[in-house]
Task: inverse folding
């Protein structure tokens, strides 16, 4: 897969982070993965603020894999802020969560999520889900043009 396309993984659970990174590697998805471990860190990365102050925000991830259950700012609020800012409003966001709550699914789509994927408990199923994610979002999907503002 193309390694110039960044993946932003927003995940607070170290086990799920390790599992996702392992699944990416085992599927030969060698893209740079930036990990944000809470909602504040994710927004700082996207907008070049806080610990990511001065980051070149014209280089945005090809896809954001966003967990919903996050400390400090939850995933739905992160998604709300992504969609509210013209610099990131069209940014592809895939919710990757263990939540199967209908209200979370509905809220995610209402806020503009591009996809909602429930993390399979079985590693082989998770590997296949990550393979398909990589194939679609990093190879097949044509992203929106980058906002210059």
Result:
């Amino acid at each position: 897969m193309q390694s110039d396309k960044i993946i932003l993984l927003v995940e607070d659970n170290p086990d799920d982070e390790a599992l996702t990174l392992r699944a990416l590697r085992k599927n030969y998805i060698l893209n740079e993965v930036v990990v944000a471990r809470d909602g504040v860190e994710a927004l700082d990365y996207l907008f070049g603020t806080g610990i990511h102050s001065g980051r070149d925000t014209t280089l945005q991830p090809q896809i954001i894999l966003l967990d919903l259950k996050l400390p400090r700012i939850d995933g739905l609020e992160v998604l709300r802020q992504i969609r509210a800012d013209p610099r990131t409003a069209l940014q592809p966001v895939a919710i990757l969560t263990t939540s199967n709550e209908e209200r979370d699914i509905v809220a995610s789509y209402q806020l503009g999520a591009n996809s909602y994927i429930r993390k399979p408990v079985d590693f082989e199923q998770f590997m296949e889900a990550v393979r398909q994610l990589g194939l679609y979002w990093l190879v097949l999907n044509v992203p929106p043009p980058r906002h210059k503002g």
